[in-house]
Design brief:
Layout: H1 10-36, E1 39-46, H2 47-59, E2 67-69, H3 71-85, E3 89-100, H4 107-113, E4 118-125, E5 131-132, H5 134-147, E6 153-157, H6 164-172, E7 176-182, H7 192-197, E8 200-204, H8 206-209, E9 213-215, H9 235-253, H10 255-259, H11 270-284, H12 292-308
Parallel strand pairs: 1-3, 1-6, 3-4, 6-7, 7-8
Antiparallel strand pairs: 2-9, 4-5
Helix pairs in contact: 5-6, 9-11, 9-12
């Protein structure tokens, strides 16, 4: 027998046992801490999907200019549902992803950003009113929160197949992802690969959505965007009405509100642009939706009056 190899004596065994006991004590502390740490969830809302799906379900159109969505009301409703679905979890916050020209908040987006527990994140809005960069923002936030163990569950309200990578990234860090959507009028409004990847699914029906979607109407009582059978208004008439609306808003909303629009010239925030179009159509008693050139003339008339006042 090699003289350097000796069987463990009582002292060595005592040290081993003591080491095991210390390790068990540390593990018990960790387990106790984990057991008492509340889980956390966050809600990620693709506003473009929500507007299109809810608008189609309630009013029959995806055109955001044709209806109003009570964002505050529906966000509160989503939060209430999470309290039922995750009774032992706390809400981190609601992330609201939308598009805006040059990523400048519209008035509507500003009001949403001021809501408690809501974070507005903006992608760009191109000339065709298509969102750009929203999916990458969702992936970045979802992956970062999951990686840092800031959330244990993520509620994703959207339908784009491009969100699959965001789901996979979050799941890779141990978070569970739950896909919520709006009932489709026909077929599906969420990509099948996205449905396959998530941990659970939930769909909101017409009864749930209807209180939060209101169809817009023109001042003459007709439906928004409804064209009459007469000829299109002249460019001069449209330009005059644009200036007329600017004068009305300057008087009713104040100089400060109007002055806040100036840095965005020649663009108007989306909500303001929609209000301008709807109000002008009521005054003209004719839809401008089919006439891109007349809509530009309308904005020109509006800006000409506003800039002349400052």
């Amino acid at each position: 027998m090699n003289d350097d190899v000796r069987p463990a004596g009582p002292t060595d065994l005592t040290a081993v046992v003591a080491g095991i006991e210390r390790t068990n004590e540390l593990l018990n502390r960790v387990l106790a801490e984990v057991a008492t740490t509340p889980s956390t969830h966050a809600v990620f809302v693709d506003a473009g999907y929500l507007y299109a799906a809810a608008g189609r379900l309630v009013t029959g159109t995806e055109d955001r200019r044709s209806f109003d969505l009570d964002a505050e009301g529906i966000i509160d409703a989503f939060i209430e549902v999470t309290r039922v679905v995750f009774p032992d979890s706390r809400l981190l916050r609601v992330y609201w992803y939308d598009g805006a020209r040059r990523r400048i908040h519209t008035l509507e987006q500003q009001s949403i950003a001021e809501l408690p527990d809501v974070k507005v994140r903006l992608g760009n809005l191109n000339a065709n009113n298509q969102q750009k960069g929203v999916d990458s923002l969702i992936r970045s936030d979802l992956e970062s929160l999951a990686r840092h163990r800031a959330i244990s569950d993520a509620v994703l309200i959207g339908g784009d197949e491009d969100l699959v990578s965001a789901v996979e990234a979050a799941q890779g860090y141990g978070a569970r992802v739950h896909l919520w959507g709006v009932e489709a009028v026909d077929g599906r409004n969420q990509a099948e690969p996205l449905l396959w990847e998530v941990d659970s699914q939930r769909t909101f029906d017409l009864e749930f959505c209807k209180p939060y979607v209101t169809e817009r109407t023109l001042q003459d009582g007709g439906a928004a965007g409804a064209a009459d059978d007469g000829p299109a208004p002249s460019r001069e008439d449209v330009r005059f009405v644009g200036a007329q609306v600017a004068a009305q808003w300057l008087a009713s909303r104040g100089r400060d509100w109007t002055a806040d629009l100036l840095p965005g010239h020649p663009y108007l925030p989306g909500a303001v642009d929609q209000d301008l179009l709807t109000t002008a159509e009521g005054l003209l008693r004719h839809s401008l939706r089919p006439y891109a050139d007349l809509r530009r003339v309308l904005r020109d008339g509006f800006w000409e009056h506003v800039r002349a006042q400052f």
